[in-house]
Amino acid sequence: MSAFNAKAFLKTVSNEPGVYRMLDVKGQVIYVGKAKNLKKRLSSYFRDNIPENKTRALVANICGVEVTLTNTETEALLLENNLIKKYMPRYNILLRDDKSYPYILVTNHTHPRLAFHRGARKIKGEYFGPYPSAGAVSESLRLMQKIFPVRQCEDAYYRARSRPCLQYQLKRCSAPCVGKISDTDYQQEVDMVKKFLAGRSSEVIATLVEKMEAASISLEFEKAAQLRDQILLLRKMQEQQAVSGNVAELDVIGFSAKNGLVAVHVLMIRDHKILGSKTYFPKTPKDSSNEEVLESFCAQYYVQLSNTGRIPKQLVVPFAFAGSDTLAEGLSAICTKKITFVLALRGEKADYLALANKNAANALEVKQSAKDSIAKRYAQLKEALSLETINRMECFDISHTMGENTVASCVVFDDQGPANKEYRRFNVEGITPGDDYAAMAFALRKRYNKLTDESKIPDIIFIDGGKGQLAQAENYFADWPHNKLPLLIGVAKGTSRKPGLETLLIDGGRRTVNLSSDAPALHLIQHIRDESHRFAIAGHRNKRQKQRNTSVLEEISGVGAKKRQAVLKYLGGIQGVKSATISELERVPGISRSIAERIYHHLNDDK
Fold it and tell me: What is the pTM of this model?
C-alpha cells in the first residue's frame, strides 16, 4: 500500500457514528474501533503529541483506514464486535474464548425432554441458564434425574422404545414412551422441573408436601414415601445452593493484572444463588491500561452473550471506565431492558466483588506459574540443543490397527505451549498397510508441500520413532526450497519403553542426546510427543468407529448416505437397526416397505 496521507483522509471523514478499520502496509486489519463521531475520534490518532506508547506504535503502522457508517452507536457496537472476531487485530484487546454458554433445554414435545444445549436456539422449548460450564449442566441434569423422573434420552431412542429402558428400572425416568405414566402426571413433573430451574424451589417443595399428605390420607404409602424422598433431596439442594444475600440476578466482574497478563473473573448470580463462574485471559497489546482492557472485555463478552443468553440488569465492575455509560446504553438497546454498570463499595455486592477479585488474582498466579514453567522448559531445551531461539515446534505420529485406518497427526507448540488450533490430522492413503515409514513420508508431504509462509516453518520437528521414521524426514528435507531449515529430531523410546528413558536422535541418528529423567527439557519433549500420540489415536478411533457404524449398511444396494443416516438416527445406532423389525424399519422417514425388507434380510438372513 502507498504512504498514508492522514490530512487528506480526515477531510473526507463523516461526523456520523460508525466503525473504522486501520490497515498496515500489507493491507491487513491491525485495529478496529467504533465512534459516536468518526471525524473527531480519528482526528485524535493523528495529533502531534500522542502520550500513549501503544497508540504511537499503532499510528506508525497505519497505511490505510476504512470506514463504515452506522445509524446508531448500538449498531456500531455490534459491528465492531463482529469485525474484531473476524479479523483478530493485533492492536485490539481480544477475548479469545467466545464459545456460547451451555443451557438446560426443556423441549415442547408431547413428552418434553430435559437436555443439554449450546449454540443457536433452533429447537422449540424453554431455555434455562446460562451455566458457566458443560460440567455444571451435566451435574444439574444428573441431580434432577434423581428428583424428577423426566426423560433425558434422545428423541430417536425415545421413539424406538417398545419396553421401558434401564433408567425406568433405576427410578430415574417415568417411561412416558411406553405409557407407564399418564400425560397429565408427566406434565405435572415437567412443570415442577421448570419451576425448579427458574429458582422457585420453595414453591415446588410446597406442592410436593401437599401431594405427600394427600397420598398418606389415601393410604398410598409407597407414593407418599417417594414424594418424601423428593422433598428431602430438594431441601438438601436448597441448603447447598443458598446464599446469604437477597440479590436475585447479577454479574460480578473480578479483575487482576500482573506482568503483562490479565485475568477477568465473571461470577454469575441467578435466582438468588451463585450459578457459577469462569475466568478469562484476554490477549492485551503492550501498554494497555486496565480501564481499556475492562471496557473492551465487557463490550465483546456481553455483545456476544446477548445473541445466546440473558444479560442481568446490573453488572458489578471493580473500577470505573470511560465508556461504561455508552456501553450500557448500547447493551440496553440490544436487550430491550435497562442495563447498568455498578461500583460496589459496601454490602453483599462488595462481598461478591471481593470474591471475584480473589478468584481472578488466584487464576492469574496459576497462569503465571504455568507460563514460568513453560519458559524454564524452553530455556533448558535451547541450551541442550544449542539453539538461539525456539518459537515453534511440531511433532508427527502415526496410528493404525494392523495397518487399517492409518491416521497421521501433527501437533504444534509455540512459545506459549500447545497451539491447539494449528493441530492437523491426515488420512494416510496409497501406501502398503502397516508401513509406518511410508505413512510418515506421506504426512510430511501433506504438511509441507504447499507451505509458503516461512513464519510457519518450525524451528524443530520431532518424529515419534526411531532411525527409520527419522530417515523419511531427512529424505524429505534434502530438497527443501526455503531458507529456514528445521532441526529434525527422532524421539526413540528406551528398551523398557518407560517415560524418562527416551533418546533423541539427531543428524539421521548419527548423534544422540540423552536427557536426565527429571530434566524440564525432557518433560517438554514428552509433552509434545504425548500430545501427538493422543491426537493420532483419537483420529484413528474416530475413523474406525465411523467405518464400523456405516460399513454394514453400505453393503445394501439402494440405501444411500441419507437413508443410512436416517435409519441410524431414528433407531439410535447400528445395534438398534440390527434388532429392529421390518415394521420398525418402515416407520423411519424415507424408508419404503421394500427397502425395509432389504435391510432386515441383509442383517438377519445369516443368523
Answer: 0.55
